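Quick board copy: two proteins, each given as sequence then tokens.
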Amino acid sequence: MAAAITKKKDIPEQVWMRCEACGETVFRKLVVERLNVCPECNHHYSISARTRIALLADEGTFVERHAELAPSDPLGFKDRKAYRDRLKENQGRTGLKEAAVCGTAAIEGMPVVLCVMDSRFIGGSMGSVVGEKVVRSVEDALEMSLPLIVVCASGGARMMEGVVSLMQMARTSAALARLDDAGELFISVLTDPTTGGVTASFAMLADVILAEPKARIGFAGPRVLKETIRADLPPGFQTSEFLLDRGFVDRVVPRSEMKNELARLIRYCSPNRKMPGAKAPEPRDDAP
């Protein structure tokens, strides 16, 4: 009888969840209502590119561009499974052709070019198509004279594409140099994780660098660095707060405040932009 009294009832997984950061059992609906943020420790869960766009863009203003771009298998790569099979698996699971979605949108009425990465697609790694989408987003911003916002979520370069993937670091950096010469605004938003070749290229080249709380940001992983320098790493190493204290990030912004912060920056840096009520421009016929 006592055993029956003390026996815990099964907790339905659709109602409760255990936070992967703090280990607390939290009400799943509350996490969703807080934009996939833990109410106990403020851990920001990864979200899909489509969800991110819905949070940042004014309703009904996002117009996707370059959706036809799809990856190939230039090296005929195979590890535990063929790269082509891995691509098909990720495309079916995520509903995306690649790990980035880009287009035009409005944020509080102000038109922008928006490129958002999705860590669910092979870890958000940067292959030839992700690099191409970033470059084309830069070209769209130049062509339309619009601010560029890139939301980063990546494990770095995609090893399955070898040197073709590594080349995207140079291509995206060169494109952003042209954007800088033209005086257009570029804002990068670093989310968990932002690592490897993405960190070493376009993610850290923005005029303003924002980051979500406690996001992992760095080039090589902590274990590799510790073995390389043969020294213990400081607490909180490679988190957005750690980088903020050392000047690598301009501001750490909670997910619930990100849209307002982006709008504030656009107004401050581009005071002539159209204010609330403006629509994102339709792509021009001669746009790349």
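And the next:
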Amino acid sequence: MTQTTANFIDVFDAERARLSTLTQRGIGMPVAGMLFWLGVAWLTRRFPISQAVLFSFFLTGVVFPIGALLTRLAGGDLFAKSPHLTKLGMLLGALQFFYWPIIILVWKLAPQWAPWTMAILFGSHFLPYAWLYRSRAYAFLTISVAVSLTVLAIITRDPMPTVVPLVTAACYAVSVVWMWRENLRVH
């Protein structure tokens, strides 16, 4: 590795560390996600599944503002700028918009599988943040949601639309506690 490449990597890693600190690893977003999944759990017990999933679509609209607010309350700034990483962060966040055609198709064809599909896809969008924010908690979030829900679906051979939101919220809760500890180690 050349000296120039090594310097670039050092600068890039320092910028990731700086952004992780400024944003408090975006901790409010998984907290908002956990609250979203608790809301979906309530919806799936209160309404027929097709209607509950439709309501959950609208509920997704409050996740980002709540996550940004909770991050701010935790001492972070989700809108912190980075000359090298802001565009990447925006691309990572925008990626989940491309999940919606899949989610809508599943809702129309097999609504009972929509919460499972949403949980897997929304959980997967956090994986790149494990690298960006140097956070094993984000990796745990993605992997725990995917593995636990897939194993449950294989074992039960059922979409479990009322169980999936609770299992997902539990995975989010564990990752939030882990992330909180990661943030405390930085200070």
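Board note added afterward: The two ends are 32 Å apart (CA to CA).
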